[in-house]
Amino acid sequence: MTRIVVIDPQPAVRAGLAMMLRTEPGLVPVGVALGAKDGLELVERQRPDVVLLDAGDLGLVRKLRALDPAPRVVLYAAFEDPTLVVTARVAGADGLVSKEADAEVLYAALRAVGRGGTALPALDRAAMDAAAHRVEPEDLALLAMLVDRTEPSEVAATLRLNPRKLARRIERLLARLRPARPHAV
After folding, report:
1. Which bin fits 160, alpha (ψ -120 to 50), beta or left (φ > 0)?
2. How far lies 51's CA from each of 91, 131, 150, 158, in Å?
3. Would you write out the chain's pLDDT as a tens digit for each of its 185 residues?
4. Those residues with Cβ within 8 angstroms of residue 170's Cβ, 6 or more apart along the chain or in another chain
5. Is residue 35 a part of any domain in this protein?
6. Rg, Å, the chain Cα set
7. Which residues carry this modification: 4-aspartylphosphate (predicted)?
8. Structural domain count, the chain
9. Is residue 185 a part of any domain in this protein?
10. What's the confidence (pLDDT) of residue 184?
11. Are 168 and 93 contained in the same domain?
C-alpha cells in the first residue's frame, strides 16, 4: 500500500486525483493541499510514502526532501519543457509525469516511486545543453552532480560548501532552470 498526499493549486485537479487514486488498488490518498504551507504541514502530519506535487512548486520538493523521514516526490506537470526533466532531478524529485498522460502512466509512476525506484524520463543531450546554457559557469559541476542524483552531503564535501551555502546555490540554480510557463491565449 502506497500512501499519497496530493498538492496542487487547482481544486478540481486535487479532487479529481484523490478520487482517481481511491479507485486504484494499493494507492491510498491520505490528504490534499493547496500549496507549500498547507502541503508541508499535511505531509508532516500524515507522513505519506509519496507526495504528488504540481511541478510549478519546485521549491517545495527540496523542503519535503529535508524532512525526516523524507517522502518520495512525483512532480505532475501541466506543460512540456525539455529542461523540466533536468530541473526535476536538481530539485530532488523521484518522478515526473505529464498531466496529459494516461492514468495508468501516473499509477505506474506512483507505484515505482513508492517502492523506492524512480519514474524520471531519460535525460537527453538537448535538455542537458539547454539547462547548461541557463546556469552560471561556476554552477555546472553542481548541476552535473545533482542531475546524477549525488547525495547532498557528498556534493557539499566535493564542492567544499557548508550545507547552508549549498542550499543557497541549489536554490539559485533552480531559479535559473525554472521552466517558463506557456502564455495563456
Report:
1. left
2. 14, 25, 21, 30
3. 999 999 999 999 999 999 999 999 999 999 999 999 999 999 999 999 999 999 988 889 989 998 999 999 999 998 777 778 999 999 999 999 999 999 999 999 999 999 999 999 999 898 899 899 999 999 999 999 999 989 888 999 999 999 899 999 999 999 898 866 544 43
4. 62, 90, 142, 146
5. yes
6. 16
7. 54
8. 2
9. no
10. 41
11. no
Side chain identity, residue 184: A
Query: Can you tell me the distance from the alpha carbon of 54 to that of 15, in angstroms, rounded to the nearest whole number?
Result: 14
- Are 97 and 134 contained in the same domain? no
Tell me whether strands 72-77 and 50-54 are parallel, antiparallel or unpaired.
Answer: parallel
Q: Grid coordinates 508541508 are at which residue?
A: 40
Give the CATH number of the domain where residue 15 resides.
3.40.50.2300
The pTM for the full model equals 0.89
Using a 10 angstrom Cβ sphere, with 0-12 exposed, 13-18 middle and 19 or more buried, the burial of residue 46 is middle
